[in-house]
Amino acid sequence: MSKKKLGFVAVMSAGLLVLAGCASGPNNGVDQSKVDKQAQALLPAEYIENGIDVASDIPYEPFEYEDEDGNLTGFDVELGALIGQKLGVEVRFNDAVFDTIIANLEAGTNDIIISSMSDTVERQAKVDFIDYNIGGSMMIVAKGNPENITNPMSLCGKTVIVQNGTIQIDLLATMSESCKVSGKAAITVTQLPDAPLMENALRAGQGDAVMMDGFVAQGAAAKAGNGEYFDLVVDPDAPNGYDAGFVGIAVLKKDTQLRDAIQAALQSLIDDGQYATLLAKWNMSNNGVVSASINGTTE
Questions:
Q1: For the chain, which residues score pLDDT lower than 50?
Q2: 295 torsion bin: left (phi>0), alpha (psi -120 to 50), beta (else)
Q3: What are the φ and ψ backbone dihedral angles of 35, each rounded to 5 degrees?
């Protein structure tokens, strides 16, 4: 297995590295005191020895981003650390471009994806998802909402900025069709590589709105320019975001043992309450899952 890294790398061991022999279990230099033995037993030996490399599109606050001290943090990052703790292995987050992130796994550059990736039937053709969150899409607009964007129909004839390779592209295509059926102008979609570029483009007047994951939109509206750059559009007909659905950890379909080990680790976190605590920390309690399902999206 290739272990080539992508640029910025963060080792998420959460203080788990200890001198070998301090706890029973594999001699891989990782603390084994909080391991779920049943979950670890499912994990192939190569990962116990070498660790797990995670592809993640960084930054994408609040899921994966650098804090003021340059340390990688976020809901996904902390969840990855807890999964590593349950499995007794080192988990490393590596920056990856989102629209090629599945190809990244296929090339053997990384082992799994934890990057707020929506579990879709189309993606299930190449990867399996261990679902860990429920998320929808929301919009941000320039402060004061000068174009009076309030719902999908108010986007007709407007330009909306999205990230390459995301479900928001298909979502806007559906919304645009509704515009045309109603006799209104189609929605123009501009695709950019990452969230910071999308936000900058909106500020520069290169679009009328940005469509992105709901939690990311909420964070951008609250924090960018100390809350002075953007407004969050909350549609009363979709208070949790448009097309809300499962978000999952992606694993290549051939790596069934790795998938099952991660599923068991996540279920262990759900069962012992650590998952609920993490959700609460990141203000996501209403968006948690009740069990670690595989490929929960079916249509």
A1: 1-23
A2: left
A3: -70, 140
Q: Is 230 helix (H, G, I), strand (E, B) or coil?
A: strand
Q: What is the pLDDT of residues 191-203, one digit of tens each?
A: 999 999 999 999 9
Tokens of 194: 């990452």
CB-count burial class (<10 Å; 0-12, 13-18, 19+) for 243: middle
Cα 229 to Cα 279: distance, rounded to the nearest angstrom: 27
| Nearest by Cα to 240 from 134, 161, 115, 166 | 134
Determine the distance from the C-alpha atom of residue 183 to the mean position of all C-alpha atoms in its chain, rounded to a whole number. Answer: 36
- Report the pLDDT value the prediction gives residue 201, as an integer from 0 to 100: 98
Which among 77, 34, 71, 30 has a CA at the least distance from the CA of 57? 77
Residue ranges of domains in the chain, CATH in brackets = 9-111+255-286 (3.40.190.10), 136-243 (3.40.190.10)
Residue 14 has a pLDDT of 41
Residue 158 is encoded by which pair of tokens?
């407007």
Q: Which two tokens stand for residue 2?
A: 């290739």
Measure the CA–CA gap between 78 and 133, rounded to whole angstroms. 14
φ, ψ at 297 (rounded to 5°): -80, 125
Per the CB < 8 A criterion, the answer to whether 132 and 289 are in contact is yes
